[in-house]
Amino acid sequence: MVKEFSNKKIDNEVKTRNARIWLDNEGIVHAVYTPGTEESLEDAENNLNAVGKVYQNKKRPIFITGPHKSMSRDARIYYVKHSPKYAVAVAVIIKSSFTKVLSTFLISLNKTINKGEFPVRFFAEEKKALDWLRDFTE
Questions:
Q1: Which of 22, 51, 66, 94 has the most CB atoms in a 10 Å sphere around its CB?
Q2: Is the model's pLDDT at 14 over the cut of 70?
Q3: pTM, to two decimals
Q4: Where are the domains of the chain?
């Protein structure tokens, strides 16, 4: 497993300005963000385009980790509006107070905009998050 933003090479990896994104052999998309990321709308667009390159035209469980420093309102809304194209479930690792605040906002937006089309859960431990996501793989 890749911890934080290591330099381990992944075969189908797509790198963006602030994330590494790949599909693992279990069918889970990983998005590992650079620590201290300040995410703009352009970053959100680039990161979801990267998910589109690795997801193999099939909705997938998505695992997100890496402590953000901040995320613009436009980026948050973009993720919520456009994630249903790619996600069957999303697990986010909470590592900072910012992520805790962001998690509450994202859950409420997902319920409002997407009518809860896919579940979003927040975890303190990667193993628990990945175990939960495996329930959404074939």
A1: 51
A2: yes
A3: 0.83
A4: 14-134
